[in-house]
Write a structure and sequence with these properties.
TIM Barrel, alpha/beta, Alpha-Beta Plaits, binds iron/sulfur cluster, globular, 9-stranded mixed beta sheet, 13 strands
Length: about 300
C-alpha cells in the first residue's frame, strides 16, 4: 500500500520553524486540543472544508454545484451560511469559486513527493544553514511517514527539524529519532491540571518523551507558548528553568507570546474559537525581566521569540 500523509500546507521560505531558511510541511492530525491553537485546521486527521467569508463575492456558484446543499444564501445573497457538518469534501465548490473563498484542506502526499518539493530550495538551505521542518498537527501521529520522509531528506543532505507537542507513544518517538537533527519541542503547561483543562491530554508522557530525547543526546529547543491568564505564572516559569537545569543539552527555551491568528482560522472551519488576551509589550518585557532577575543559570538560555 502507498504510504501517504495528509498535509494542510507546505510553506517555502519559512524563517520561524528552525534555523535558516526552511521548507515546512504541516501534517494534518493532532491528539491535542489546545484552546489557543494557531493552526486549528490541523487538528482533525481528515479533509475539512474551509470558508474564507471575507473573500466571498456571493456569486452563488458554490450553491449551484454543491451536491450536499451545504450553502445557504438569502434571496438577496446578503448572507452566506455554510453547514460544515454536511459537507462531503468533494471539492466541487472550491473548483468553481472565482475568489478561492472555498477550500478543502488536506491533501495526500507521499514521502517521495514531499522530498521532491523540499529539494527545490536546497540552495537556500545551504546559504542560510536552513533545511526542512516537519510540523503539524503532530508529526508523531504519523511516525511511518515522518521517519520515511525525514530519512529521505537526510539522504539528500538536508538538515531536518521536527516541531512536536511531544505527546506520543515511545515507539513513535524511537521510530523518528534517528532522522531528526533538531527537535522543536513544545512545553505548554507545567501541571496535569492545566494539561487536562487546556490541552486535553496528560502531561506525563510529554515529559517522558522530552527526557527520552535529551538522554539520547538529541538537539532540542523548548518552545513555550505563553498565554495570559493560563501559564504566565511564576510556577510555570520556574518549571521551564528547572527543565533547562536538568537537561543541559536543551539549547534554549523560546517564549512565544500568544497571538490570535488562530481565531479567524477556527471560524473558517465552522468552529467558535476560544479567545485569550494578546499580551502587551509591557507584559512581554515583564516575563523577560522575571527570567533575567531569577538569577538562575538557565535564564541565559531563555529567549523571547516573536
Ligand atoms: S466540498 Fe462538496 S459537499 Fe462540501 S461544500 Fe463544497 S461542494 Fe458542497
Ligand atoms: S463560489 Fe466563492 S465567491 Fe461565489 S458564493 Fe461561493 S464562496 Fe462566495
Amino acid at each position: 500500500m502507498k504510504m501517504e500523509a495528509l498535509l494542510i500546507d507546505i510553506q517555502r521560505g519559512s524563517l520561524n520553524d528552525g534555523p535558516g531558511i526552511r521548507t515546512t510541511f504541516f501534517l494534518k492530525g493532532c491528539p491535542l486540543r489546545c484552546s489557543w491553537c494557531h493552526n486549528p485546521e490541523s487538528q482533525k486527521a481528515a479533509p475539512q472544508l474551509s470558508f474564507h467569508r471575507e473573500r466571498c463575492t456571493l456569486c452563488g456558484r458554490c450553491r449551484e454545484i454543491c451536491p450536499a446543499r451545504v450553502h445557504r444564501m438569502e434571496p438577496d445573497r446578503a448572507s452566506h451560511q455554510v453547514d460544515f457538518e454536511d459537507c462531503l469534501k468533494c471539492g466541487a465548490c472550491a473548483a468553481v469559486c472565482p475568489t478561492n473563498a472555498m477550500k478543502v484542506i488536506g491533501r495526500a502526499c507521499t514521502p517521495e513527493e514531499a522530498v521532491e518539493i523540499a529539494v527545490k530550495d536546497r540552495e537556500f538551505y545551504e546559504q542560510s544553514g536552513g533545511g526542512v521542518t516537519l510540523s503539524g498537527g503532530e508529526p508523531l501521529t504519523q511516525p511511518d511517514f515522518s521517519a520515511a520522509f525525514l530519512s529521505l531528506c537526510q539522504d539528500e543532505m538536508m538538515h531536518t527539524c521536527m516541531e512536536t507537542s511531544g505527546y506520543a507513544g515511545k515507539a513513535a518517538v524511537e521510530k523518528v529519532l534517528p532522522y531528526v537533527d533538531l527537535f522543536y519541542f513544545d512545553w505548554k503547561v507545567s501541571t496535569e491540571e492545566l494539561a487536562g483543562e487546556y490541552l486535553g491530554v496528560p502531561l506525563a508522557p510529554i515529559l517522558e518523551n522530552l527526557k527520552l530525547l535529551c538522554r539520547a543526546g538529541k538537539e532540542v529547543v523548548l518552545r513555550c507558548p505563553i498565554i495570559p491568564g493560563v501559564n504566565d505564572r511564576e510556577a510555570h516559569f520556574r518549571k521551564i528553568l528547572s527543565l533547562l537545569e536538568e537537561f543541559p543539552g536543551i539549547q534554549e527555551a523560546q517564549l512565544l507570546p500568544y497571538h490570535d491568528f488562530g481565531t479567524g482560522k477556527s471560524r473558517n472551519i465552522g468552529r467558535q474559537p476560544s479567545v485569550f488576551p494578546v499580551p502587551s509589550r509591557e507584559e512581554k518585557e515583564e516575563w523577560e525581566a522575571w527570567f533575567s532577575q531569577s538569577g538562575a543559570a538557565g535564564a541565559k538560555r531563555v529567549r523571547l521569540a516573536g
